[in-house]
Amino acid sequence: VVASAGSLPGEPLYAVKRLTEQAELFFAPADQQATIHIAHAEARLSEIEKLAARGVVLPGLLDEMKAETQAAISGVKTLPAKQQAQVLPALVVLISKETTALTKIQSQLPASHASQNDLSRAQTDSTTQRQDVITHAEKSSIPLAVQSTPTETPTKQPATSTATATLQPTATQPTLTPT
Fold first, then answer.
1. Residue 16: CB partners within 8 Å, gap ≥ 6?
2. What distance in Å separates the CA atoms of residue 54 and residue 49, rounded to the nearest whole number?
3. What digits encode the pLDDT tens for the residues 83-95?
4. Beta carbons of 44 and 95 less than 8 angstroms apart
5. Which of 68, 86, 112, 154 is most enclosed, with most CB atoms within 10 A?
6. What are phi and psi of 168, to 5 degrees?
7. Whole-number Å distance between alpha carbons of 44 and 21
8. Whole-angstrom distance between the N-terminal and C-terminal Cα of the chain?
């Protein structure tokens, strides 16, 4: 199971990875399932990006990412408002990542690549899902700090580099005392 975690579609351990995900979802309490679907959609996105780096785009994998994202949206709508307020921002971030990644992949592939239409459809689906989440948050009076989806715009100006540091908590190991 551990060895399958980084596997990609077409590799021998990928079926084990997907079976593990299904088991994780099956045994999860209902109030955790939306979060698990978000994690699975992120896994599909990562797989899509890794395969695209090799020039491969699998339409079925795009559909699976959409299905996981849609399951997360449906799941979050069944949660109490307090939990929705916690999960909805993660969902908006996921969908923004999807849209950005799909745009980048599409721009890197030749215009004649067979998957251009599939990528366009997936981008449209992501945009529709994002709007669904935003509309639901507005109807439920759940505040979201929603930013517009970034798109890459070619410019003739030289690129400038900006660094941003984000502090993250570090885990400390407990001190063991012999008894």
1. 1, 4, 7
2. 9
3. 999 999 999 999 9
4. no
5. 68
6. -125, 145
7. 11
8. 36
- Please tell me the distance from the alpha carbon of residue 76 to that of residue 32, in angstroms, as a whole number: 9
Q: How far apart are CA 156 and CA 94, in angstroms?
A: 30
* Calpha distance 92→18 (Å, rounded): 24
| Distance set, CA 80 to CA 86, 87, 132 (Å) | 10, 11, 18
**In angstroms, rounded to a whole number, what is the distance separating the alpha carbons of residues 4 and 12?**
9
What is the C-alpha separation between 137 and 135, in angstroms, rounded? 5
* pTM of the model as a whole: 0.79
pLDDT tens digits for range 117-169:
999 999 999 999 999 999 999 999 998 875 544 444 444 334 443 333 333 44
- Which conformational region is residue 111 in: left (phi greater than 0), alpha (psi within -120 to 50 degrees), or beta? alpha
- Give the residue from 103, 40, 64, 54 showing the smallest Cα distance to 32: 40
